[in-house]
């Protein structure tokens, strides 16, 4: 079975073709980063307009390159995300589904992220603990099986990717700041400034990053006033990164212990962070699984594989599903388990 995956929930237009026999056989991605960079963040209306321009030609290109005239099913991101942006893939999926007489699978964006490591040769087996770290989410999820999710902890304020982006902005780095901040941090001393590790000693598994962000803001203002900001930038970036990653790892290890997890899956854009990968490998005694770097951030491949794993849920085109908010825990296992 051939599943076409479409992703337009935020600022990436992603298309991929997944063959349940052969695996991924085609994919294309268009990033809108340049369009939004001038505004310092994603502008929803601009995102929707660009998805409209890009999506159909990207689909055509992926099908042509694979030598396929139509898929057997279409999976599309139905939320959570920007509703106008989600509507682009949702609307097109419904139109193409009617034209091609093929069923649709609405996919939860975060389920796509947590299944992305399944695209790799050494795919994790269920159950596992998932650390989902993106620009919009920071979550620790106990994953018993496909569609069986218990959210152990989530952020009470900013997502960790958002904290990276906002800190990067404070340091004068271009949007999206996460990768730029990580690169700058390579040249800094991560012990230069003692920064808080929020929530690390609190009960439960929730996160909070706003206190850390405020502490960095104070440091930046102080250095600006003293005229030392140019010398301090890399050290502030490294100290922030160390505090944020220590917090993520501290919470993840605590959850892994409480769940007796042997496997941790890290997914979402911040999963591309090298310090996170290095530290988790050093501090967790079980196995850690990641998608390859390009499948950490938003992409069509994770939606196509999530759709392929949920073929039992495929439905005739009828309504466009697009939800700004959608609880991961409200998902259920597929109606009929795939073999
Ligand atoms: O998963 P994603 O592409 O989009 C959302 O669903 O949010 O994640 C994007 C986030 C951005 O906040 C970006 O700054 C962050 O992931 N990010 C990183 C790195 N690469 C991307 N944060 C820290 N270190 C990185 N290397
Ligand atoms: Zn995402």
Write up what this structure looks like:
It is a single chain. The chain is an alpha/beta fold and 339 residues long. Helices cover 42% and strands 19% of the residues. It has 2 domains: 2-115 and 297-330, ATPase, nucleotide binding domain (Nucleotidyltransferase, domain 5, 2-Layer Sandwich); 126-290, Nucleotidyltransferase, domain 5 (2-Layer Sandwich). The chain has helices at 33-37, 44-66, 83-100, 109-115, 160-170, 177-185, 210-226, 229-259, 274-283, 300-309; strands spanning 2-7, 12-19, 23-31, 73-79, 104-108, 128-133, 138-145, 148-154, 263-267, 287-289. The strands form 2 sheets. A 5-stranded mixed β-sheet has the order 3-2-1-4-5, with helices on both faces. The protein has a 5-stranded mixed β-sheet with strand order 8-7-6-9-10, sandwiched between helices. A hairpin with a 3-residue loop joins strand 2 and strand 3 (23-31). The longest helix is centred in the C-terminal third of the chain and has 31 residues, at 229-259. It is globular. The mean pLDDT is 95. It binds 5'-O-[(R)-(carboxyoxy)(hydroxy)phosphoryl]adenosine and zinc ion. Residues 109, 113, 134, 268, 298 line the site of zinc ion.
């Amino acid at each position: 079975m051939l599943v076409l995956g479409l992703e337009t929930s935020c600022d990436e237009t992603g298309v991929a073709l997944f063959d349940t026999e052969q695996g991924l056989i085609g994919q294309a991605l268009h990033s809108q980063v340049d369009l939004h960079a001038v505004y310092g963040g994603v502008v929803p209306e601009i995102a929707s307009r660009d998805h409209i321009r890009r999506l159909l030609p990207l689909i055509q290109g992926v099908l042509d390159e694979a030598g396929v005239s139509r898929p057997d099913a279409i999976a599309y991101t139905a939320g959570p995300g920007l509703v106008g942006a989600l509507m682009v893939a949702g609307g097109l999926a419904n139109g193409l589904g009617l034209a091609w007489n093929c069923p649709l699978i609405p996919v939860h964006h975060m389920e796509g992220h947590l299944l992305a490591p399944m695209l790799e040769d050494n795919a994790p087996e269920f159950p596992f603990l998932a650390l989902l770290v993106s620009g919009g989410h920071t979550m620790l999820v106990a994953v018993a099986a496909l569609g069986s999710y218990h959210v152990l902890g989530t952020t009470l304020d900013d997502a960790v990717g958002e904290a990276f982006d906002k800190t990067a902005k404070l340091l004068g780095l271009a949007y999206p700041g996460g990768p730029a901040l990580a690169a700058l941090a390579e040249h800094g001393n991560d012990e230069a400034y003692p920064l808080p590790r929020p929530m690390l000693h609190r009960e439960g598994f929730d996160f909070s990053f706003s206190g850390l962000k405020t502490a960095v803001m104070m440091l930046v203002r102080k250095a600006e006033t003293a005229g030392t900001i140019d010398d301090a930038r890399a050290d502030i970036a490294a100290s922030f990164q160390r505090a944020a990653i220590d917090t993520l790892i501290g919470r993840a290890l605590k959850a892994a212990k409480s769940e007796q997890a042997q496997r941790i899956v890290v997914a979402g854009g911040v999963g591309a962070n090298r310090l996170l990968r290095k530290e988790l490998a050093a501090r967790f005694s079980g196995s850690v699984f990641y998608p390859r770097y390009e499948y950490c951030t938003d992409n069509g491949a994770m939606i196509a594989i999530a759709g392929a794993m949920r073929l039992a849920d495929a439905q005739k085109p009828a309504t466009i599903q697009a939800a700004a908010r959608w609880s991961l825990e409200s998902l259920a296992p597929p109606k009929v388990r795939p073999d």
